[in-house]
Design goal:
With about 220 residues, this protein is of the alpha+beta class. It is about 40% helix and about 10% strand. The protein has 10 helices and 5 strands. The chain has a 5-stranded antiparallel beta sheet with strand order 1-2-3-5-4. Strand 2 and strand 3 form a beta hairpin. The longest helix is centred in the first third of the chain and has 23 residues, at about 30-50. The protein starts with 6 loop residues before the first helix and ends in a 7-residue tail after the last helix.
């Protein structure tokens, strides 16, 4: 089955939006946006379906809860441009409202990314994650250093400059205990999506991360 949304068409439109980020231009090009967005959302729905084959958390996820809107919330921002210059979606239990480790796709000119993890966990959760990684460091490294993950994804996290309270600087897991979040991403070019079925390709590559999600989500009661 071939997809019907070309990522190059999406990024071309978003480049133009970035240069003309105002309501008048968007209104003039709304019909073009709707065609692209509807096609992209249909592909994200199929990505949810494919991921559901091996991730229980994605089963029953509604598209509207997965994708982020194009409209920016400018109420508390100095940047008053009304539109985002990217399409993005969270695929996993809870969608974009999730608290757990799951997958993310981000389509932006010059910043095409897929990956996943747990974003900015609350302090009690972060404390549990650090405790888990400290106690099960060997298992954690076995997962994240597996070439299936490490040859494709890289860590993309905010980190502390010093070790968190309660951990010694000599701890062999220091690199990971300093992290404020646990996210692995792959930065891609448009050629990656120039294939018969980019949705299936993305699904296959996101599946690589499932062992990491399973490990991190051990701190949650997901039953």
């Amino acid at each position: 089955m071939k997809t019907h949304c070309k990522i190059s068409d999406v990024t071309a439109f978003l480049r133009r939006l970035e240069m003309n980020n105002d309501r008048a231009w968007f209104k003039e090009h709304k019909e073009e946006f709707d065609v692209l967005r509807n096609a992209w959302e249909a592909d994200i729905q199929r990505l949810i379906t494919l991921q559901s084959e091996w991730d229980e958390g994605a089963r029953g996820l509604h598209l509207k809860n997965s994708v982020y809107r194009i409209y920016r919330d400018t109420r508390f921002s100095k940047d008053k441009t009304p539109y985002k210059n990217y399409f993005s979606a969270v695929i996993g239990k809870g969608g974009r409202h999730t608290k757990i480790s799951c997958n993310y796709v981000h389509f932006q000119p010059g910043k095409l990314m897929i990956g996943g993890g747990i974003w900015w966990p609350e302090k009690p959760v972060l404390d549990e994650l650090r405790s888990l990684i400290d106690a099960e460091g060997e298992e954690f490294l076995k997962i994240v250093n597996n070439p299936a993950i490490s040859d494709f994804y890289h860590w993309d996290c905010d980190t502390l400059k010093r070790m968190p309270k309660g951990y010694d600087e000599s701890n062999p897991m220091a690199e990971f205990l300093k992290m404020k979040e646990y996210i692995m991403m792959a930065t891609l070019d448009e050629a990656y999506f120039d294939c018969d079925d980019w949705v299936a390709r993305v699904a296959d590559d996101l599946r690589r991360l499932q062992p990491m999600h399973d490990f991190l989500n051990y701190v949650f009661d997901l039953d």
